[in-house]
Amino acid sequence: MRIAILSRNPSLFSTRRLVEAARARGHETKVIDVLRCYMNITSHAPSMHYRGEELNDFDAVIPRIGASVTFYGTAVLRQFEMLGVYPLNESVAITRARDKLRSLQLLSRKGIGLPITGFAHAPDDVEDLIKMVGGAPLVIKLLEGTQGIGVVLAETQKAAESVIEAFMGLKVNILVQEYIREANGADIRCFVIGDRVVASMKRQAKEGEFRSNLHRGGTATLIRITPEERSTATRAARIMGLNVAGVDILRSNHGPVVMEVNSSPGLEGIERATGKDVAALMIEFIEKNAVLGKTRTRGQG
């Protein structure tokens, strides 16, 4: 099987692991920088070109598209889908998951547990917005933020008002969420492939920090999740339409709540914490499901 891996950096841990796992199972791989791809968009003979050559004859494509290149990256993936190449995650699902507000609204509609979340436009509504999510302390998030960047914990009413008004003054979109104090700076990353959680780890924020991202000094350890947490993670991935997802869950007093559904979860933390060959499980999923033209949307989304 010929597998394309859309990644801007072939030396990244996750990209290298996917290449190793695919080759170990007898597949041919090619790492492709999405920003160097260009497309011929035509009715009868669409094509994809890369560094002066036409790309063809791929059986599957694994998107590892960074948040900063979502728009162009999903356009490239959509072109592969139009060509009938099987995507591990579809372009429509990635776009859906990358929109934090849209993804929360979709999860809410399906009854998935979520932290109380507010969204507003006008600074006149700040006081009621804070009251709506239960008051301070609360968490303020930039909609476009990743890896914990643009996430602020406001511990008092005055601090919350000041931060929200500052962000609104900069004309950026933000979410305001209740602070799940009982989580104690920890979350659970559930790695979902298909309809099951194949690995899970607890991420604990370093002392004095509430963000548990490994990029911010958090630590990862193996954890046993409950049946309710397992069900929440698989349902959340399914609602997003993702075959592979990293679902981040907090343990709250009212059950598991989903913080985010990541369409391109990293492999380094989860593989080291659990000792599982997650990359091989991703390749195995492709082997079982990759059929030319087997894409729900065929790039139409």
Share of helix, binned: 25-40%
Q: Count up the domains.
A: 3
Q: Judging by the overall fold, what is the CATH architecture of the largest domain?
A: 3-Layer(aba) Sandwich
Number of helices: 9
Q: Structural class of the helices, strands and pairings? A: alpha+beta
Task: Assign the CATH class of the largest domain.
Answer: Alpha Beta
- Give the beta-strand count: 16
Q: Which percent band covers the strand fraction? A: 25-35%
Per the CATH scheme, the topology name of the largest domain is: Rossmann fold
Helices and strands, in order, run as EHEEEEEHEHHEHEEHEEEEHEEHH
Radius of gyration: 20 Å
* Spatial strand order of the main sheet: 14-13-12-15-16
Q: Report mean pLDDT, rounded to a whole number.
A: 89
CA-CA gap between termini: 26 Å
Shape, principal axes of CA atoms: globular
* Largest beta-sheet details: 5 strands, antiparallel
Query: Which residue ranges are poorly predicted, with pLDDT under 50 across at least 5 consecutive positions?
Result: none
Task: Describe the protein's architecture and organization.
Keywords: ATP-binding, Ligase, Magnesium, Manganese, Metal-binding, Nucleotide-binding, Protein biosynthesis. In the C-terminal section; belongs to the RimK family. Belongs to the RimK family. It comes from Thiobaca trueperi. By secondary structure, the protein is an alpha+beta fold. It has 3 domains: 99 residues, Rossmann fold (3-Layer(aba) Sandwich); 63 residues, ATP-grasp fold, A domain (Dna Ligase, domain 1, 2-Layer Sandwich), CATH 3.30.1490.20; 95 residues, 2-Layer Sandwich (D-amino Acid Aminotransferase, Chain A, domain 1), CATH 3.30.470. The chain is 32% helix and 27% strand. The protein has 9 helices and 16 strands. The strands form 4 sheets. The chain has a 5-stranded antiparallel β-sheet, with helices on both faces. Strands 2-1-6-7 form a 4-stranded parallel β-sheet, sandwiched between helices. A 4-stranded antiparallel β-sheet has the order 8-11-9-10, covered by helices on one side. Strand 3 and strand 4 form a beta hairpin. The longest helix has 14 residues. The chain is globular, with a radius of gyration of 20 Å.
